[in-house]
Amino acid sequence: MAGQKHRIVRLKGRSRCAFTNTSKLADKEIKTALRAVHSELSLDRVVVHFKTMGERRWSFGRAYAGIPGVMNRRGLSIGEWDYLITIAVDDDPIRWVHTLAHEAKHIDQYRQRHYRGRGREAACNAFADWFMRECWSGA
Ligand SMILES: [Zn+2]
Q1: 87 CA → ligand 1 middle, Å
Q2: How far, in Å, is the centroid of ligand 1 from the Cα of 122?
Q3: Best label site of 22, 54, 87, 130, fewest CB within 10 Å?
Q4: Gap from CA of 124 to ligand 1 centroid (Å)
């Protein structure tokens, strides 16, 4: 099972992120969201996998403090990538962007070596709420 080939997205400040997309989202929507989030929190060297939601009601994300050994790497150069985010996408056009912003904040916490302690989830939710309110006008 090789998995889908990654697409590389050029971001501001010579940064790059990469994604795969097996969800119903258009790649263009994804790129718009990645660039919008990156303008607030770095997504440099971050890989994002967009998948289709199973039975879950809400979009569901996870941020990894590293690249898992079993991750699909098609189209990626070894050593150029530091973090993985996975996002399961449902039909709600807002929710997946909120989840992306939330997980981007977790990546920022990893970069700051803020791995544990109180308030991590609250900080991610606060950032995502703020992002949706102040920065996001749709893909
Ligand atoms: Zn979280």
Answers
A1: 12
A2: 8
A3: 54
A4: 6
